[in-house]
Amino acid sequence: MDDVIKEFIRNMKIAAGLNEQLIFNAWDAVSGMADYTVSRYLKNGVLYCSMSSSVVRSRLFPHREELVRKINAYLEQDSLFVRDDPGTGLLKGIVLT
């Protein structure tokens, strides 16, 4: 059934938008900083997050690579995430602003 759903998502060309939302949800779940995240967007596999607190941003900054690994692991467990989508796949990095 998972393969049928993934094929439907690819055929309808909604994988990129769905993956983007799944990445945003993974950020909220893994980082625990949804309340401090003002805005976020995804470009070329890099997640850009604007934080409302410089203290929170400073605390997260040294943990960016770890967050990328945890977010990617979180996404790989999600049956709706289309890993091989050319538009949006697994995260390559995080930029905190």
Keywords:
single chain; 3 strands; 3-stranded mixed β-sheet; 97 residues; alpha+beta
Would you kindly provide a brief summary of this structure?
With 97 residues, this protein is of the alpha+beta class. It has helices spanning 2-11, 15-31, 54-60, 64-76; strands spanning 37-43, 46-51, 93-96.
Give the rounded overall mean pLDDT: 88
Which secondary-structure class do the elements indicate? alpha+beta
The quaternary state of the protein chains shown equals single chain
Tally of DSSP helical segments = 4
Q: Over all CA atoms, what is the radius of gyration? A: 14 Å
End-to-end span in angstroms? 40 Å
> What does the overall shape look like?
elongated
Main pleated-sheet profile: 3 strands, mixed
Relative helix content: 40-55%
Sheet-strand content, in percent, reads 15-25%
Give an overview of the whole structure.
- 48% of the residues lie in helices and 18% in strands.
- The chain is an alpha+beta fold and 97 residues long.
- A 3-stranded mixed β-sheet has the order 1-2-3.
- The model has no long low-confidence stretch (mean pLDDT 88).
- It is elongated.
- The N and C termini lie far apart (40 Å).
- The protein is built from 4 helices and 3 strands, in the order H-H-E-E-H-H-E.
- The longest helix is centred in the first third of the chain and has 17 residues, at 15-31.
- Helix 2 packs across helix 4.
